């Protein structure tokens, strides 16, 4: 492709409205333009990358035995009413009426449509398992779209749905998808991690997220420094500290702590480490039935630890989703305010985090405003309590896999695989005749890849101050061919055109920058666009029948004989 | 692909709700399923065909110098308000509000979005011409969607838009697109015709439709039997009959024609050919200004010819769009009813079709209820009239190209190229600095291909009583590999698996029907799906180390040595 016949659309200035680096660089490199909030046109450079990502995803899905279908973006409300999500989903589900005032939605996902299809098409266990996927445009009416295509309203996804009659069969397809996703992200050339994920409110039994690692990532991921263990920080188990709890040495004592509102205040006042000050949080207890009055539960953690709300709301004693009691509710139950609570003499059930339960001679609120207790010891001073994993892990915690310590890194979620179970198949009565000739509801898995989001994540991970650094596999062009002052030198032009013809004939994707621009402008644009390999044709090197090669990522330069360029590039791009 | 690992979803019964053959066969062959009125899921077989069509279109667009972009399906109302189409378009334009109650549309086409993009990105004549295309999902809220994907609400289109500063430049790109479209439809293996089309109400100067010929086509197309001339029937010029008009022989005479309401009645009553009876239609005249009172015009045609409304409304004397006068309006102006009108003594302007103007001694209404005139002659009996091309051509008319006679065939429109001019660029003020440094509005072309519609059109053209007959280029699979009773014979299974591995290794797309089905069921399914080449592996032929080849289109069978199958298929598929 010659630049003069292409739409480069690079921008020098950093766009004011872009917050993250990938958004800025996608705008500056001429990949996308905003049409409306959260909606983008992909310019030619953006489309080239998008199609490459799409193709790699398609190939690996096919290889893993998934079969491609294509469902409509507009979906009838009836299916969403049948699954129950018409009422459950908030305004993110964009609803509208057609000319006959029938209700429709713009599909943010396709569980309903695919389950409806499969219940009509599949009648026998002999046709299972089945794994259907599509690469298709989705719409999610985000309240606050941002970060460019990272959190857009309209976006391209690969979504797959599998159908089974047994958990074993589901697990097999799940494993195949896990492997396919590893293959996809490896082929894309990205540093990624599969991460154990929370299955959330949907239920389901098993879930992994695939994260592209990047310092700017939204999500925190806990890794073992000695094994493959990786989990979403919400999911990572905090083990109980090793060894026996130290024996009690101090007596229980009450101290006045006026004006000490926080754990930090108390620690400072008493000149103790925050780890020795416990904190007590009061939340709604789970109700036995809807009509029972609301009761409360106390959660106790070390002062230097953070409550993990997802862990807490999974406890049978605690209401899900988690609700914190108000100050009024707390005072009514405990007769002290939030700053002075503690497990000693607590009139409501007490659940203690594993690490807090390992403390001895610790400090807690006295359940009396303005007072704390010191020298507190479990079992001696508090008899009735239970222990659970309640906290977020922190760096240095022992890895729950048993090997190494946890390290926290940041990631961008680009894929998600999920054992759905019967959530949708039950609601839509999607079953088949099993081997015994009986009607049986199918069990399902679903597997998503954010195709357009991958582009942003790849840039967050691969860029420098000059612009994007594409992995070879998804670069818009493989090679930038840059002649120096071609419009003044017939010799340069002839040599460059010859190289261009040779390289394209050999199957390389070359962007030949034939614009009448200063070399500096061309170098800057090619670097900004992140083209991984550059070849510069200049007068002086031409005297030696050579051109200069530059690697975008390493910055390394080398001289190549003009006659050996095609071979050299084949070698570099095969790597 | 093995059938057992695929989703065949063929149906024996003809679906009741499908009206046209392509819709029936797409359902029966397991290509599509209805999700809602005018919305379909493409099953795996449908997707395979869709992706092939898409890829051929993409390759030919790229080859012709167009550059791929991707615009959102959801578009902000502001752009449609700016172009004026927000108000002009009826309910086909699906409008909705997002969560912030801002107005949006589901894009049925992208002139507004692309013109907005180009006015922001392109500033100088040096960046022109520019031809941008996308392959993207569109939504048109048809009042009555039907014929499956032929007239769906959600459909896949290739739409391209070109930008220029001169008519010459537009014409060049238009010609390139004309050629690209010929290449596309040739590669798809379809019998098609580019057809001169009406530019309609949008204005614009030049337009061609590309039609796939099929007896079931919606549109009538006029061809010359001796040249390349082809035009939409609305566009085909009806030439004046050759030679001098015959001299008048009869005297003008009035005859009573009571109860003769139609041309046919009059011809029967007077025992004359309908071609000798003229008919007179009264329509609204064009007004000089909005406040002038409405006046009328008489259009005179031969009784055996049909008025072409598009030709009529293009005349400067006639109001556009065409409005026929009511009986009251006619009686007020002429004092006779519609059944008794004629040009003799007509008090309003008379425009005569070229063929009617060539009549002598003809018959017309007497402008007096229940009476006609015979022996009527132009110039002698009617002095004041003008002549124009007013009628639809009929088979046998001389071709307007000067060569041969016109033949009428039916076609399905699958492509449309159009010189838009400044319709959108003017409304959106999309201009650049020209060579003189002055701001100049760009002129535009647009070029559409109905990607999903092509599939239906291809089937309308290529099918028989057993199902679809795919052209090689867009067949879901190239080869059907059918073992006879494989599940009872290890020898058959081994031979078939070996062939399957050889054929797929050689790059062929093979559907290996490994189902436990009777041979008859497998043959019927493979024929229904239209797979162009079949190879049947049977016990008896295997004794001679042979398999049977069958061509889906010709029905011809031949025996192939097992060792020569790959070579034979390479030969057949290279054709």
TrEMBL record, chains A, B:
<feature type="domain" description="Aminoacyl-transfer RNA synthetases class-II family profile">
    <location>
        <begin position="33"/>
        <end position="471"/>
    </location>
</feature>
<dbReference type="Pfam" id="PF04073">
    <property type="entry name" value="tRNA_edit"/>
</dbReference>
<dbReference type="InterPro" id="IPR050062">
    <property type="entry name" value="Pro-tRNA_synthetase"/>
</dbReference>
<dbReference type="InterPro" id="IPR036754">
    <property type="entry name" value="YbaK/aa-tRNA-synt-asso_dom_sf"/>
</dbReference>
<dbReference type="InterPro" id="IPR002316">
    <property type="entry name" value="Pro-tRNA-ligase_IIa"/>
</dbReference>
<dbReference type="InterPro" id="IPR002314">
    <property type="entry name" value="aa-tRNA-synt_IIb"/>
</dbReference>
<comment type="function">
    <text>Catalyzes the attachment of proline to tRNA(Pro) in a two-step reaction: proline is first activated by ATP to form Pro-AMP and then transferred to the acceptor end of tRNA(Pro). As ProRS can inadvertently accommodate and process non-cognate amino acids such as alanine and cysteine, to avoid such errors it has two additional distinct editing activities against alanine. One activity is designated as 'pretransfer' editing and involves the tRNA(Pro)-independent hydrolysis of activated Ala-AMP.</text>
</comment>
<dbReference type="Pfam" id="PF03129">
    <property type="entry name" value="HGTP_anticodon"/>
</dbReference>
<dbReference type="GO" id="GO:0005524">
    <property type="term" value="F:ATP binding"/>
</dbReference>
<dbReference type="InterPro" id="IPR023717">
    <property type="entry name" value="Pro-tRNA-Synthase_IIa_type1"/>
</dbReference>
<comment type="subunit">
    <text>Homodimer.</text>
</comment>
<keyword id="KW-0436">Ligase</keyword>
<dbReference type="InterPro" id="IPR033730">
    <property type="entry name" value="ProRS_core_prok"/>
</dbReference>
<dbReference type="InterPro" id="IPR006195">
    <property type="entry name" value="aa-tRNA-synth_II"/>
</dbReference>
<dbReference type="GO" id="GO:0002161">
    <property type="term" value="F:aminoacyl-tRNA deacylase activity"/>
</dbReference>
<dbReference type="InterPro" id="IPR007214">
    <property type="entry name" value="YbaK/aa-tRNA-synth-assoc-dom"/>
</dbReference>
<comment type="similarity">
    <text>Belongs to the class-II aminoacyl-tRNA synthetase family. ProS type 1 subfamily.</text>
</comment>
<dbReference type="InterPro" id="IPR004154">
    <property type="entry name" value="Anticodon-bd"/>
</dbReference>
<dbReference type="GO" id="GO:0005829">
    <property type="term" value="C:cytosol"/>
</dbReference>
<dbReference type="GO" id="GO:0006433">
    <property type="term" value="P:prolyl-tRNA aminoacylation"/>
</dbReference>
<keyword id="KW-0963">Cytoplasm</keyword>
<dbReference type="GO" id="GO:0004827">
    <property type="term" value="F:proline-tRNA ligase activity"/>
</dbReference>
<keyword id="KW-0648">Protein biosynthesis</keyword>
<dbReference type="InterPro" id="IPR004500">
    <property type="entry name" value="Pro-tRNA-synth_IIa_bac-type"/>
</dbReference>
<keyword id="KW-0067">ATP-binding</keyword>
<dbReference type="InterPro" id="IPR044140">
    <property type="entry name" value="ProRS_anticodon_short"/>
</dbReference>
<dbReference type="InterPro" id="IPR045864">
    <property type="entry name" value="aa-tRNA-synth_II/BPL/LPL"/>
</dbReference>
<protein>
    <recommendedName>
        <fullName>Proline--tRNA ligase</fullName>
        <ecNumber>6.1.1.15</ecNumber>
    </recommendedName>
</protein>
<keyword id="KW-0547">Nucleotide-binding</keyword>
<dbReference type="Pfam" id="PF00587">
    <property type="entry name" value="tRNA-synt_2b"/>
</dbReference>
<keyword id="KW-0030">Aminoacyl-tRNA synthetase</keyword>
<dbReference type="InterPro" id="IPR036621">
    <property type="entry name" value="Anticodon-bd_dom_sf"/>
</dbReference>
